[in-house]
Design a protein that fits this description.
Chains A, B, C, D: This is Sensory rhodopsin transducer. The structure is a homotetramer. The first copy, chain A, contains no helices and eight strands. By secondary structure, chain A is mainly β. In chain A, β6 and β7 form a beta hairpin.
Chain lengths: ~120, ~120, ~120, ~120
């Protein structure tokens, strides 16, 4: 089962909404499943429109566990600071194959909206 | 037509919202199409952030039928209990090729939101 | 450019909501792009949970055109009658490669929700 | 890293909603990540139901940058005019591999809705 997934995933549309309404905070999560029997060590590269990429390092997803990493919490994405209200893209690299999905909750305007995509798998 | 789809599918972002408003209940569904001429016998593995995986067994999707399995109903997912309000991921394994999509309805904050992804196909 | 896309696409999660609020009607669309220089002739197979599949035939997507086919309008899906409020799945088959995306607008509970997936490509 | 992504991407379901409510304008964005070390030069072909395709040319996504291109702003999509309220599809072609995601925000009916798909990759 160790070869399920890919080592590199890319998600082009990242954007943490600035505003929230109601009790649910606008946020995004990079959802990783590690179905293998080995822990996965993950690094993240955040790309922007007008500045150099920013790296987050040393995120661990244990064997047979999932982690849903909030991009607005630097401690969950290896120390990277991702500003709100700014378009970004993200590349996820793992030392063992994983599967990556990216989801957004936007409560910026009464009620809430969700969107989600599986990343684009690159290296198998 | 028996080779359309894949035997293993992975969806990293599972989360059954705790709250519902209005007449529609927050829920998720694992939607399976079996386009083949043979019944499909399906097992599900649910992965969590901080506990061992949970298995559901013996779900049948008949030949040339679809089933939309509610993850909050153990009787629809082979007996697995998936708690609300907890991040999870799911791996679907079938004995014949199928196609898997995962959708969420969230009515946790006035109005409703939907999200949906096709799973990541692993073994063909 | 005639090989861009696939001849068979599958979408497991179909569901035309029964209720609508406001001015926008709940609906789904099967969005097809034919980027080739030849007209595409398309047939659709709708699968259900508890009845035989239903076929729609003879839908044409002209060369270098897109069509967004409403599943609640039999005249747009080759004569197939897809009931509201019933889970279904759909398989799209074309005589030339096309690209297929499936989207839902749900206005069943104040405000509106959208979801969309690219189909699962089968034969290239 | 120059081979991550694809040179051609297709998104069948484009539609810029005509109405907006609240402070957020209904819009779509073609989100491109160029993870390579070379600038990407991009052309876009917009397909319609009842008219000839329209081209946009000369969009640049610099090396290691993302751009989220609003389809309602001709200056962001190489000069192409995409009307609101009309179904379209889009094909993105790049001279270096990129990754393409397409997202819609619809605020046409109180509250907001989001949908997003990764494009269908064609040439690697």
């Amino acid at each position: 089962m160790s070869s399920e997934g890919a080592r590199v995933w890319i998600v082009p549309d990242g954007f943490i909404p600035e505003r929230s309404t109601g009790g649910l905070e606008s946020h995004e999560a990079i959802c990783v499943l590690n179905p293998s029997r080995s822990d996965a060590r993950i690094s993240l590269t955040f790309y922007f429109e007008d500045r150099e990429p920013v790296r987050g390092e040393g995120v661990v997803v244990p064997a047979e566990r999932t982690r849903h990493l909030r991009t607005d919490r630097p401690e969950e994405v290896g120390g990277a600071e991702v500003p709100r209200g700014v378009p970004y893209a993200v590349r996820v690299e793992s030392d063992v194959p994983v599967v990556v999905q990216h989801s957004r909750m936007d409560t910026g305007q009464e009620a809430l909206a969700l969107m989600s995509v599986l990343g684009h798998p690159v290296e198998r």
